[in-house]
Amino acid sequence: MTDGALRARLIPAGLVWTLVRTDFKARYHGTIGGFVWALLKPMSMFVVLMGVFSFLFASNPTYKLNLIVGLFLWDFFAEGTKSGLTSLHARGYLLTKARVPPWVLVVTSISNAVITLAVFSVVIAIFLVGASHPPTPAALAAFGAYCVAMMAIVIGFSLGASVLFLRYRDLNQVWEVVLQAGFFIAPIIYPLGILPERFHFYLYVWPPTPVIEFSRAALVAGVMPTTRGHLYLAGDAVFCLLAGMVIFRLLSPRAAEYV
Amino acid sequence: MSLIEVDAVSKAFWIPSVHRETVREHLLGVFEPRRFERLQVLDGVSFDVRRGEGLGIMGRNGSGKSTLLKIVSGVYLPDRGRVSTRAAITPVLELGVGWNPELDAVDNVLLIGSVMGLTLKEIRASLDEILVFAELERFANLKLKHYSSGMSERLGYAVAFKAVREVLVLDEIFAVGDAGFKARCERRYRELRSLGHTAIIVSHDPRIIATFCERALLLDGGRVMVEGTARTVADQYVAMLTQASREVSGATSPS
Q1: What is the CATH number of the domain that holds B54?
Q2: Which of A22, A168, A256 sits opposite B23 (nearest CB)?
Q3: Are the Cβ atoms of B115 and A167 closer than 8 angstroms?
Q4: I want to staple B101 with a disulfide (CB 3.0 to 4.6 A). Which of A107, A218, B77, B145 is the partner?
Q5: Residue B75 and residue A95: Cβ atoms within 8 Å?
């Protein structure tokens, strides 16, 4: 094998950076102003929901903090999965014209959601400090780990859904409906405690629920979830990632034929 | 030594009687099974490409040329057979390299250049040269969606000619641009070949195959009908077209 052939089989860092950069530019018209609009969507939702529901949950002093943690994590999940689902189709112009590893196109497509999550993490930290709940280093480390678990879930979903979307072109609409329902299944605008405990298990099956609940426990309540809980989340993330990888491995070799 | 070996490659597409592309269509059609027609595009194609040579591929529309190039370039997988590549391939398929219409020329060149294996440093150093080659310096910051098809095709060739490392795969080379651009492409192509680069060219034009290739294949119905010197294959292709034209005239003329 020649040097050129070997180089062609590696994933150049420049390619990953260019895909992330061009995705950002295409989505936000290359301006910080465009990115601010993306931040405003969950921020405005937070303001509206806080305005309405803080009256309903007036007795809960940490409601606002729990709401902002839940909303921002949900925003990452929703935006990441939506981008990932359509990623191969959206980048079909590359897939059909050049030899490019399809998984790179899928994984880099969630970069904008990751950037937004990073910005929101800072916002969450500011809110926590402002509300006299400064997070401990252990809580921040745990939150980082939960974000990694959420990323694994989003990447797993994106890998599987992106190749299925090439065959079923209304899958994005189906997913919008699922997300709509999922927003209320995940305890974002209400505390999980208002539901009877026998239903909690079913809510935890929905992947964003443990990430949101554990993040709230660590950052807001200052309580670390149990080892069993952590094992469940890790298993959940690994399962989603592996399931997505298996579907992707089965269907992606012929992805270019379906674009 | 062969840089590319194509061994008994076959490829078929299954054409459904009814296209179903959505979950809804699949669910509604669950009790109406579809028929699938097998379209054999390539059937046991074998050839090799040696280091430094120019290989031409000719054939009528639907003979499997573009599918073959996509398989050689690693875009499609063959159903049967094997393609061994020992060199980096830079493809320009169907007159394009894959542009994002929402990005300007500079960002698209960075994107395609990195897909073709150049480093960002190499692309930035070559950017002016690429834009000058494509005569698009004035439109460097214009989004590709505002480009004419000719402009984007010129840019595609300019990037590929710069990015090529070992093997250049060109579908319908020199079919874009005005006489000046074609002449520049031809000069650049000869320069690359003199530097030892390998090329695979698909064309309908016998002059291009005879002029720019040493060896060629003639595909028909997904099979290699003739393999030989570029001149021989170009002549066979013309003879095949003449024969087909006579048959059509004979079939349609009033008796």
Answers
A1: 3.40.50.300
A2: A168
A3: no
A4: B145
A5: yes
